[in-house]
Each structure stands twice: as C-alpha cells, then as structure tokens.
Design brief:
seven-stranded antiparallel beta sheet, 4 helices, globular, two-stranded antiparallel ribbon, 9 strands, alpha+beta
C-alpha cells in the first residue's frame, strides 16, 4: 500500500536544530498485552514506496518486533490522525550499537478526522537531540538494510 502524499510529506525530510519537530509514536504490544510506545522523529523514519524504514533503539520495542512483527505508526496533522498498520519485512542489527534497522510493509492506512483542529506532539530539536538522532548514521543503516535483498 502507498501512503497518501500528505502523510509521506510529514514523514519526509530532516530535523533542524532549534526548531520544533513532530513526534511519531510507534506502537507495539508487550508480552503481557499492554501497548508499548516508541517515540520516533523523521530522522528515524524513511518512506520506501510501499514500505517504511525505521531505526529503532528501544530494547522492548525491538523485542516486540522480533516476537510479533506488527506495529502501528501514528501521524497527527491538521484535522486528522493517520494510523499506519505495519508488518515487519526484515530487520538488521547494527554491530556496535543498540540500533535495529527495520523495513515494514504498509498493510493499511486509516485516516481519523473529526473536523476538529489537532496539534501533534512535538519536541524542540537541540544539539543533543540532533546528536542522539544520528540522522547520517540512520540513513547508512537503512541503506545497508536495502543491501540485504
């Protein structure tokens, strides 16, 4: 499935220091049945046609993906919340870091609009955040994931 252009636009690009950036919650389910939320930024997400690449650093989220392979990405914008259902296609550990690069297939997209203005959760991009996001490193991880074809 291909995402609508407005959602692709929200997921594309890079973060800029000293600007507010949207938070992208990725939900998985723990072994006890409770939801697990992993907060991502655009620096950790890449739209890939009918797929979505992500770099995950959360150990519980990583464990949930290895066990179950399903996730839900939430994207909020203007008058709508977009829910993107994902299934793990492949994953690759990065030797020497806690990062896991993953590629999901996009199984479904649901737009929930109540015609009420919404504001997405945001964070301020600081120098420390830019360093922890490691955008160049993430891009390299996702490129290596593509090489596993």
């Amino acid at each position: 499935m291909i995402l609508p252009p407005d959602v692709v636009s929200l997921l594309s690009g890079t973060t800029t220091e000293d600007e507010w950036e949207v938070v992208l919650p990725l939900l998985t389910v723990d072994t006890d049945g409770y939801p697990r939320v992993c907060l991502l930024s655009r620096a950790e997400v890449e739209v890939r046609g009918t797929g979505l690449g992500c770099v995950i650093r959360g150990r519980r989220t990583t464990a949930n993906l290895r066990r179950d392979g399903r996730a839900l990405l939430v994207v909020v914008h203007d008058l709508s919340a977009h829910y993107v259902r994902l299934t793990l296609r492949r994953a690759r550990d990065d030797e020497g870091s806690a990062a896991l690069s993953v590629e999901f297939s996009i199984d479904d997209h649901e737009e929930d609009s109540r015609q009420t203005p919404l504001r997405a959760m945001t964070f301020l991009v600081t120098a420390r955040v830019r360093e922890s996001e490691a955008a160049d490193f993430n891009e390299a991880l996702l490129d290596r994931l593509s090489e596993t074809d």
